[in-house]
Amino acid sequence: MLNKIWDEVEFVNILETRSIEGKFLKLTEELGELAAEVIAMQGQTYKDFNREKLVEEMADTLLMVYSIFSELLKMSGSTKLDLFTSCESKMIKWKEKIKDYKVK
Questions:
Q1: 1 within 8 A of 62, measured Cβ to Cβ
Q2: Predicted TM-score of the model (pTM)
Q3: Whole-angstrom Cα Rg for the chain
Q4: Could you give the angle at which helices 80-100 and 51-76 cross, rounded to 10 degrees?
Q5: What is the tens place of the pLDDT at every residue in 44-103?
Q6: Which of 14, 84, 98, 99 is most deeply packed, by most CB within 10 A?
Q7: Domain positions in the chain
Q8: 71 CB contacts (<8 Å, ≥6 apart)?
């Protein structure tokens, strides 16, 4: 399913008029909206928590990340396979750090 969404984002990117800088600004906006929902979920604001709104903000953030990554891959001459291969390598390192982490 994530590959299907990625492919749709790549198609929409063709129609997108925002610059890469504009997309980064939009991502910042989406992260702020997501943060507001997380704060509400933790009960640290006047706002009532809304699970559906949290999921919507997560989706907005993920789609913008995909859009930026898709464009950066195209600009750099890299591929989705390059990105996912790097993710696999980074995931191995992450797991090793967690496994070796000692609580003080």
A1: no
A2: 0.87
A3: 17
A4: 120
A5: 988 899 999 999 999 999 999 999 999 999 999 999 999 999 999 999 999 888 877 666
A6: 84
A7: 2-77
A8: 13, 20, 23
